[in-house]
């Protein structure tokens, strides 16, 4: 077993939250980042990022627009039957692939930390210190651990987190397509049992990413059949899937996506991004929350010395709840409405009469711009 030096902080997981935390905290602390997969890589995601974090990303040395990200200011939502509303997006956002965005963050993070591409198997806390063991046989020690291992990880089981014991009905599929689509638009098309987001990325391809339930999916034999027979009942999705040319050999899929409540600090581990809580994807705010949580955690660590573990834990947990709990609640409510055809129909009727309602509701799932 090889032993590497002791660190101030070990960050487990190098998605958006882990990478942003590494850059934000790496200037002041000796950091080890452990990530299981090398960059760049495609991830299942809608790839629409809220402008809430654009200035902050720039302060971390990451410039999405300069790398071709599409500036998005318009939202189209449609019902199962294809009735649609188009509205301006109060804060707007940008379209960039995870492939590109994580690579940009990684290029900055590597300047601030030791990065190890291994799978973390165990995190143990004893006598005010963590020991971390990887599948590949490395062992490290650290004063603090930051959990940035996403919505579902082997570590959630090892740490016996509550949400992991419940089965989740949600699965998601994503692909990139060649298709004629407006640069400034993000579309959210509903279908029976789920919804599909469409938006362009920096390369000009359209990302189609949808969330649905096992019960909707098990009635068909393949993804293709699901897209043709279930999703394409929405005429707007029918037009998309009939004309778009798939650029992936196979779409990417993930399952067991849990939206259960989690704790921002658990077993003395500071959770950031989806490890602390996943907002419903229709809000288009999960990536911004991942980056934003990195910012608030780094600020808490700037305020209190490393010797004050309890103060750090209480300060972060309080700030995390104040910043994100309201949006998670609103996200759950919107998800419920959109997935119930009768409620969705009534809400669309009201939104047609009062168009300013759409940007108002969207703003409730987002925070203010952070710098
Ligand atoms: C279907 C779907 C669509 C979405 N669309 C959008 C959208 O359009 N806009 C938006 O803002 N948000 C969207 N989201 C949410 C967004 O994807 C997440 O909120 C965001 O990726 C969270 O980043 P993260 O860094 O917390 O987690 P992740 O990006 O999942 O990163 C976790 C990292 O941890 C690593 N890891 C896990 N376990 C280990 C281990 N044991 N050892 C080492 N490494 C490990 C993983 O390899 C991964 O790199 C969507 C989510 C879903 C499910």
UniProtKB/TrEMBL annotation:
<dbReference type="Pfam" id="PF01494">
    <property type="entry name" value="FAD_binding_3"/>
</dbReference>
<feature type="domain" description="FAD-binding">
    <location>
        <begin position="7"/>
        <end position="297"/>
    </location>
</feature>
<dbReference type="GO" id="GO:0071949">
    <property type="term" value="F:FAD binding"/>
</dbReference>
<dbReference type="InterPro" id="IPR050407">
    <property type="entry name" value="Geranylgeranyl_reductase"/>
</dbReference>
<protein>
    <submittedName>
        <fullName>Flavin-dependent dehydrogenase</fullName>
    </submittedName>
</protein>
<dbReference type="InterPro" id="IPR002938">
    <property type="entry name" value="FAD-bd"/>
</dbReference>
<dbReference type="InterPro" id="IPR036188">
    <property type="entry name" value="FAD/NAD-bd_sf"/>
</dbReference>
């Amino acid at each position: 077993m090889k032993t590497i030096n002791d660190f101030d902080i070990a960050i487990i997981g190098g998605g958006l939250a882990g990478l942003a935390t590494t850059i934000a905290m790496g200037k002041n602390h000796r950091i080890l980042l452990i990530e299981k997969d090398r960059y760049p890589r495609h991830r299942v995601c809608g790839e629409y990022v809220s402008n809430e974090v654009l200035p902050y990303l720039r302060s971390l040395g990451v410039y999405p627009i300069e790398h071709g990200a599409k500036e998005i200011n318009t939202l189209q939502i449609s019902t199962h039957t294809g009735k649609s509303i188009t509205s301006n997006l109060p804060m707007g956002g940008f379209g960039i692939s995870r492939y590109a965005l994580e690579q940009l963050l990684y290029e900055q993070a590597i300047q601030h930390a030791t990065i190890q591409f291994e799978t973390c198997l165990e995190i143990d806390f004893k006598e005010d210190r963590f020991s971390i063991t990887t599948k590949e046989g490395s062992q490290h020690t650290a004063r603090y651990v930051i959990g940035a291992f996403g919505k579902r990880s082997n570590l959630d089981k090892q740490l016996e987190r509550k949400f992991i014991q419940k089965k989740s009905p949600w699965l998601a599929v994503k692909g990139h397509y060649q298709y004629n689509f407006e640069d400034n638009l993000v579309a959210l098309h509903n279908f029976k049992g789920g919804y599909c987001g469409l938006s362009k990325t920096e390369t000009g391809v359209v990302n189609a990413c949808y969330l649905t339930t096992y019960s909707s999916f098990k009635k068909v034999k393949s993804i293709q059949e699901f897209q043709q027979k279930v999703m394409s009942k929405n005429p707007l999705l029918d037009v998309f899937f009939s004309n778009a040319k798939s650029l992936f050999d196979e779409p990417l899929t993930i399952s067991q996506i849990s939206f259960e409540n989690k704790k921002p600090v658990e077993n003395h581990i500071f959770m950031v991004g989806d490890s602390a809580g996943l907002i419903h994807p229709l809000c288009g705010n999960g990536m911004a929350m991942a980056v934003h949580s990195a910012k608030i955690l780094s600020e808490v660590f700037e305020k209190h010395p490393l010797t004050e573990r309890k103060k750090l834990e209480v300060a972060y947990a309080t700030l995390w709840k104040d910043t994100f709990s309201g949006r998670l609640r609103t996200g759950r409510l919107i998800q419920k409405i959109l997935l119930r055809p009768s409620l969705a129909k009534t809400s669309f009727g009201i939104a047609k009469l009062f168009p300013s309602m759409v940007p108002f509701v969207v703003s409730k799932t987002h925070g203010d711009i952070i710098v």
